[in-house]
Write a structure and sequence with these properties.
Length: 558
């Protein structure tokens, strides 16, 4: 395997709207992020991914981009961004941006020009199609509900539609048109030339389209079929585009490319994340994928930590000889991992520490999502009006249509909603958790902010935050860096349902990471002279056996 600059590092995801508000408008911004760079440095992260900060009408929280080369005024200016980039670099932190290029916003100039003149160059940047037999061109269902086709604005009644896999305000870009691809590649290089270290690449497998738009057999009572089923069928076409993009942009810049690539055929992973892959690495969403959301998000099946372990371990083993994936326990599209996967008795600081050890020490480039490092849990939403996310609102509607009562539908959202992770970062016990001085924040503040916050944990050596610092420091410790970066992943015997135990192995050296989410202690055979590198509670090491208390974890060098 080729050695890369990002190997052995720990990454951190910032959701800019909710990280830190510097000007008191209730919304996070770039100056807010700058004010927290020392916090990130102290935590030990060396790569920071910013969810979209570009000009946007915020229909999908910035994942609808109206100008790829400008900063949204809500977040600040290009000068603020340049300052952030420079100050981050001074602290040894590289910034990666969010590349949302399957679609743009309906407020992008391209789309406005395209609708205004169907013969324009810009009209070729989108998929405009005539209906078939009085119906939209195909029966695909958008990720956020309803048809992927919408009448072209200004041409209503002309049986003319445009394609959007996400909301109707996010028209899909036509990757089959070479000049459009070139525009996107130029834009990527604009940011890389500025000094951005790379990108997290949004929903990228969706760029492949069957130009006949044949649709697929229905997978729901609405007669439609999820767009993601079409995407899964067209991965070869996507591969062609991805190679072009890599050659034109990431590769020549030695940039970090991390893809959000749902539905990758597991047999061709090497093409994606191998030495010559389209990307450097991709997120491991295998546990998240267990919940096929459509056609019934509201009929989600809970995923236990046992199921999480079996699923994630399988994908770790799959990529051992291929490349790296990015372990996560949550992100801005998911509920908090501690609330979602852990048994009730472990949905607390103890559980957060043990889950953190798994996240940081699995093989790959781990991403920590803001607030995870203090053990943030799901936020309690008491009414549908407290949610902001389009996806939450759409799923609430479909739950009611599916026969759930309003209070049942609300409970589903409380478990599943993306807004769970999008509430403001908890900095202190002050007003709005120290996130903002505004009278009201754009999304509600977590109910536990008075006790669950950075200020309360900063100087407490037993806090979740302090434990995360130790985990990251261990991963970077020159003595263990090699094995914790390149060491093979090996599953260990779980011995009980809620135990997540694995080894990292390199050149005959071995490190065990054991997270115990049971409500009783468990024990493992190790060596007589084994050394405890880190543990979240006091562990017993006697006669070659280590005993790990309930809801805790240990890292041992054998
Ligand atoms: O997500 C792509 C994606 O497939 C998920 O949206 C998923 O289907 C959804 O979160 C339902 O849980 C990316 C971004 O991460 C997400 O925030 C955007 O909404 C989406 O793309 C559109 O850009
Ligand atoms: Ca602000």
């Amino acid at each position: 395997m080729q050695t890369k600059w990002w190997h052995g590092k720990v990454a951190y995801q910032i959701y800019p709207k909710s990280f830190c508000d510097s000007n008191g408008d209730g919304i996070g911004d770039l100056q807010g992020i700058i004010s927290k760079l020392d916090y990130l440095k102290e935590l030990g992260v060396e790569i920071v991914w910013l969810s979209p900060i570009f000009k946007t009408p915020f229909v999908d929280q910035g994942y609808d981009i109206a100008d790829y080369e400008d900063i949204d005024p809500v977040f600040g200016t290009m000068a603020d961004f340049d300052e952030l980039l420079a100050k981050a670099k001074e602290r040894g932190i590289d910034i990666i941006l969010d590349l949302v290029i399957n679609h743009c916003s309906n407020e992008h100039e391209w789309f406005k020009k395209a609708c205004a003149d169907l013969n324009s160059e810009e009209a070729k940047y989108f998929y405009f199609r005539k209906g078939k037999n009085g119906l939209p061109p195909d029966n695909l269902r958008s990720y956020f509900g309803g048809s992927v086709w919408e009448p072209v604005p200004g041409h209503e009644g002309e049986d003319l539609y445009y394609l959007h896999y996400f909301t109707k305000e996010q028209p899909d870009l036509n990757w089959n048109y070479a000049p459009l691809r070139q525009k996107l590649f130029d834009m990527i290089n604009f940011w890389l030339d500025k000094g951005v270290a790379g990108f997290r690449i949004d929903a990228i497998m969706n760029i492949a389209k069957d130009l006949d738009f044949p649709g697929l057999p229905a997978d729901g009572a609405d007669g439609m079929c999820s767009a993601n089923k079409m995407t899964a069928k067209l991965s070869d076409q996507a591969a062609t585009f991805l190679t072009m993009m890599n050659d034109a942009t990431f590769k020549p810049h030695d940039a970090l490319s991390v893809a959000e690539a749902f539905g990758v055929n597991q047999d061709s992973l090497k093409n994606y994340i191998g030495d010559d892959g389209f990307f450097n690495t991709i997120f491991d969403f295998s546990a998240r994928e267990l919940n096929e959301k459509y056609p019934a998000y509201y009929r989600y099946r809970p995923v236990s930590i046992a199921k999480w372990r079996d699923t994630i371990f399988a994908s770790q083993e799959r990529v051992n000889d291929i490349g790296f994936m990015c372990p996560i326990i949550e992100n801005h599209d998911e509920p908090r991992g501690v609330s979602y996967y852990l048994p009730r008795h472990a949905q607390n600081a103890d559980g957060a520490k043990a889950f953190g050890a798994v996240n940081v020490l699995l093989r790959g480039l781990p991403f920590i999502y803001q607030g995870q490092e203090i053990g943030m849990t799901n936020t309690r939403f008491n009414s549908i009006y407290e949610f902001d996310d389009v996806n939450a609102k759409d799923n609430y509607k479909s739950a009611l249509e599916g026969g759930l009562t309003p209070s049942q539908a609300l409970e589903v959202l409380n478990v599943e909603s993306r807004d769970n992770a999008r509430t403001p970062m908890l900095w202190s016990s002050e007003k709005n958790a120290g996130f903002s001085s505004a009278p009201i924040t754009w999304l509600k503040v977590h109910q536990d902010y008075q006790t669950l916050n950075v200020a309360a944990q900063k100087d407490d050596e037993n806090s979740v935050l302090s434990f995360y610092k130790q985990l990251i420091a261990l991963k970077k410790n020159p003595q263990y860096k090699e094995i914790l970066t390149y060491g093979k992943f090996k599953a260990l015997d779980p011995v009980a349902e809620y135990v997540v135990p694995f080894a990292r192995e390199l050149d005959g050296k071995m490190i065990y990471v054991i997270a115990n989410f049971e409500d009783t202690e468990v024990s493992y055979g190790v060596n007589a002279d084994s050394k405890i590198l880190l543990s979240s509670k006091e562990v017993q090491l006697q006669d070659g056996r280590v005993t790990i208390p309930a809801v805790s974890c240990v890292v041992i060098e054998l």
